[in-house]
Write a structure and sequence with these properties.
This protein is mainly alpha-helical. The chain has two domains: 168 residues, MFS general substrate transporter like domains (Growth Hormone, Chain: A), CATH 1.20.1250.20; 167 residues, Up-down Bundle (Growth Hormone, Chain: A). The chain is 79% helix and 0% strand. The chain is globular and about 55 Å long.
């Protein structure tokens, strides 16, 4: 009886810690992404930059915000600075907002700040319930909503320095004072993966394909703001529920089935309902692939998070190749999604073994 009471109290403390951290980091994620999107787009829609120069700024921003995360994550892990990195990300983004009249400088700072915040927040989410995909999915999900809000603000020309600076500083202060979970930097793990490199390549490859499809497939009806909001909410819910459903029902069942079912819906994306439902199913994979990569790299949660964003930006950069206009066809996109489903199924088949799922359930967290 006594041990049951102790376990119940521990579960309540863990739940309270998880809810407080996820609530704060989710809001901060939306704010950081909204600020960066509004800042970058304001350079074009305010008339301060030419279209060609703006395209160059976008390239710089993506390189820093996404491709820069593995490097930031590596040093964050090495010196155990995940909280400090998240706070520094909020501060750097705040400074970029104040310097928005200087396009290059502001974009560089925004990219660095965005990368730092994502690494810090990603490490926290991965350590709330180690080995599980629910918390990382919930953390990542609001980013899509923030990007939508920031995009609409940037295009409208109503970018507000004071409002974004205030919100960003509040987020940084919240991270500074909230109780944080214990971060596991131990490089030993109860989990073992025999074909390590093959699993990693398949996981990162499926992430890159998902990123490419997300950019290549264009739904013309997104110009309708109400439909854009519905699409964004579908993406947010897909990422959030992907981890929860995956942990409850099984990673392979949820993610592979989600990708297969999403393929014909994305191909029929000229119909808003089909496109919205397709993108919901398509995004169920995100938290599972992220958590799987992190489990493959014990002791390096920041670097693992960064590797997944590097795979994302690889998919974005593929769009600059001359032949990708052919791949943007919705029918071909359906085939590519099915290839991604095959890769993910193969990766997770190799990832799991007879005892692995039971070992994951036994992994605990120190509070």
């Amino acid at each position: 009886m006594y041990s049951f009471v102790i376990r119940s109290a521990r579960r309540r403390r863990r739940l309270k810690l998880a809810l407080s951290n996820l609530s704060l980091y989710c809001v901060a994620h939306a704010v950081v992404d909204a600020a960066c999107a509004a800042l970058v787009l304001s350079h074009l829609y305010s008339g301060r930059t030419e279209t060609a120069y703006f395209a160059f700024l976008i390239l710089i921003y993506n390189a820093l915000a996404f491709a820069g995360q593995p490097l930031i994550g590596f040093f964050s892990d090495k010196y155990k600075l995940s909280y400090e990195v998240a706070i520094a990300g909020c501060v750097a983004t705040t400074v970029s907002v104040f310097l928005y009249v200087f396009p290059m400088l502001s974009v560089v700072l925004a990219g660095i700040g965005n990368a730092m915040f994502h690494v810090g927040g990603g490490v926290t989410s991965l350590n709330l319930y180690r080995g599980k995909a629910s918390a990382p999915g919930i953390f990542v999900a609001p980013g899509a909503f923030g990007l939508m809000i920031g995009t609409l603000i940037g295009r409208s020309g109503s970018f507000s320095v004071a409002s974004f600076a205030f919100l960003l500083l509040c987020c940084g202060a919240g991270i500074l004072f909230i109780k944080q979970p214990h971060i596991d930097y131990s490089t030993t793990s109860e989990l073992s993966f025999e074909p390590y490199h093959i699993i990693m390549l398949l996981l990162l490859g499926s992430i890159s394909i998902r990123s490419f499809i997300g950019i290549a497939v264009n739904f013309t009806w997104k110009s309708d703001v109400s439909l854009l909001v519905c699409l964004t909410l579908a993406i947010v819910l897909g990422k959030a529920l992907g981890g929860i459903l995956g942990d409850k029902l099984g990673w392979r069942k949820v993610t592979v089935a989600g990708l297969i079912l999403s393929a014909p819906l994305v191909a029929a994306g000229n119909y808003p309902l089909a496109g919205i439902l397709g993108m919901f199913l398509f995004n169920l994979t995100m938290p599972v692939t992220l958590t799987a990569v992190a489990n493959l790299l014990p002791g390096y949660p920041g670097f693992a998070f960064g590797m997944t964003t590097l795979a994302l930006v690889t998919g974005v950069f593929i769009m600059y190749l001359p032949f990708t206009i052919i791949l943007a066809s919705k029918v071909i996109a359906m085939g590519i999604i099915l290839i991604s489903a095959f890769m993910l199924n193969k990766a997770l088949t190799l990832y799991f073994n007879d005892s692995l799922e039971e070992k994951i359930k036994k992994i605990d967290i120190n509070i």
